[in-house]
Amino acid sequence: YEISLGLVGSEMCIRDREQMFQRLGHEVSRTSMAHWIIRLNDVFQPLINLMRETQNGSDYLQADETRIQVLKEDGKSVHSDKWMWVTRGGPPGQPSVLFEYDPSRGGKVPVRLLDDFQGILQADGYSGYGQVCAANKLTRIGCWDHARRKYVEAARAAPAKGKKGPPSKADVALSHIRKLYAIEKAARDLSDEERYQLRQEKSLPLLNTFKAWLEKNAPQVMKGLLTRKAMDYTLNQWDTLVGYCERGDLNISNAGAENAIRPFALGRKAWLFADTSQGCLLYTSDAADERSSV
Q1: Distance CA 191, CA 195 (A)
Q2: Cα 168 to chain center, whole Å?
Q3: What gap in Å lies between CA 24 and CA 166, rounded to an integer?
Q4: How far apart are CA 25 and CA 22, in angstroms?
Q5: Which among 1, 85, 117, 168 is least buried, having the fewest CB atoms inside 10 angstroms?
Q6: Whole-structure pTM over 0.90, yes or no?
Q7: Could you give the CA distance from residue 65 to residue 182 in angstroms, rounded to a whole number?
Q8: Tens of pLDDT along the chain (294 residues)?
Q9: Residues 281, 238: Cα–Cα separation, whole Å
């Protein structure tokens, strides 16, 4: 267990662990460690099932997904994308994080994971969540971090302007979004009810102003440019992006799920791939154990 938890917590691969033991004068092969880790899945599965049941019994979940390379997957080439799905949520003040491997990024995966969830699902604009939202009649809210990144990319790609030049449309959009985040920062220590009232009084008027600006200015930007893509994305996702204002306990972004993926992404740079899907069970089990408060 300590070996597998170390792989998750420090982003070390089994080869690194083998070399560390060798420096300490111990011979522990990576084959042995890999077999030990895979056998842990049966130990952790009851806990994972309980955590999944607890998450799906709550009324607010965040979801995201990230790529993983698995060498041996039936019906898939070595270089094809496979996916690690993450959900975050649970009782108030007791969120858990669950990772689930699946070779597919199709909508059937969130349908399986969230089969009995009834509530609010927060995710980026990926269409794969549409199926479960329709089937379960879920309320879907969006992620302003995801929308903001598109304007940041557009601003970075724009030609440099002099100090006295007018701001680019991407910069103007970012100024609107910064005002929304400033309100969230001010509301950090407020109660859910107080945060809800603040959003109704201050965030919604800013959102309405931003939408009007987008609708006026988007047609003026050539299609295909990064700025136009960012503006179109924001308008297309508008109903979900404003959803966080409907309750004080909802988040302006999907950062909780995205932050849970970050250690996985860092670790992926060290271990690069999984040989089989069984190797993915390590992260599903140990990430659940390390990050859960259940």
Answers
A1: 6
A2: 29
A3: 62
A4: 5
A5: 1
A6: no
A7: 28
A8: 444 444 444 445 666 667 777 777 877 777 777 777 777 777 778 888 899 999 999 999 999 998 776 655 666 666 667 888 999 999 888 888 998 888 888 999 999 999 999 999 999 999 999 999 999 999 999 999 999 999 999 999 987 776 677 899 999 999 999 999 999 999 999 999 999 999 999 999 999 999 999 999 999 999 999 999 999 999 999 999 999 999 999 999 999 998 888 776 665 655 555 555 555 555 544 444 444 433
A9: 36
Among residues 277, 280, 275, 269, the alpha carbon closest in space to that of 16 is found at 269
Q: How many angstroms separate the CA atoms of 150 and 221, rounded?
A: 15
Q: What is the 3-state secondary structure (H, E, C) of the chain?
A: CHHHHHHHHHCCCHHHHHHHHHHCCCCCCHHHHHHHHHHHHHHHHHHHHHHHHHHHCCCEEEEEEEEECEEECCCCCCCCCEEEEEEEECCCCCCEEEEEEECCCCCHHHHHHCCCCCCEEECCCCHHHHHHHHHHCCEEECCHHHHHHHHHHHHHHCCCCCCCCCCCHHHHHHHHHHHHHHHHHHCCCCCHHHHHHHHHHHHHHHHHHHHHHHHHHHHHCCCCCHHHHHHHHHHHCHHHHCHHHHCCCCCCCCHHHHHHHHHHHHHHHHHCCEEEHHHHHHHHHHHHHHHCCC
Query: Rounded CA gap, 150 and 264, in Å?
Result: 23
Amino acid at 138: L
CA distance 244 to 48: 28
For 125, the token pair is: 């604009």
CA distance 176 to 196: 20
Q: How many other CB atoms are found less than 10 A from the CB of residue 237?
A: 20
Q: Which residue's entry shows tokens 């299609």?
A: 223
Per-residue tokens: 29? 């092969």
Q: Which residue, chain included where needed, has tokens 């308008």?
A: 235
